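Late entry, written up from scratch paper. The run itself happened at the end of the previous shift, but nothing got recorded in the book at the time, so transcribing now.
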Amino acid sequence: MSAMSSALMAIARVGQAASWRLKNASEEGYQKAMTALRSFAVLGLCLFLAGAILAEPARAQNREVPYWATLRFDEVNMRVGPSQEYKIDWVYKRKGLPVKVVRVRDSWRLVQDHEGTQGWVASSQLNPNLGAIVVGDGLADLREEPATNSAMRWRAEPGVVGALVECRESFCEIDVDGRRGWVAMDRLWGVGEMEPSAP
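Output as recorded:
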């Protein structure tokens, strides 16, 4: 083999090595770019979902008043006016407590509780899910079926709060921490939205 041929082969090998390095560098850059793109896509999706989740309760409450809702948190402030600038008049410490929304102003709701107390609560503090509270004197029977002669499953004291499941005739089914039963409608407050229409 001549010196010229050896030189040409050496140059070719160097060129191939350089090409391989460039190809690898290009692929590495492509992979990094795709990884970054996927990360941005995932982040964007997370932000979108978070926004949708936060906006849903507000959309659900943009309805014609009056309507029913429940307290979203274990502690909810009731104010004398529709703004953070107004003083706190009452602090509720009953997550799931039903309230009646009687007025809407921007992101604030004028609500009424089972005792007739009214005040302003931020819409973010309310849950559109329905609930009921046991009222009246003495223990309320939670029955297996919506009938006075149905077997009794539980008994609840006045003030017990439960999720409102459904209403039939003069009974409503509530769920109190997993314990379900049918209660006479006149022993519950908060069932207005499910109360059967008058004939």
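The mean pLDDT is 81.
(Scratch paper discarded after transcription.)
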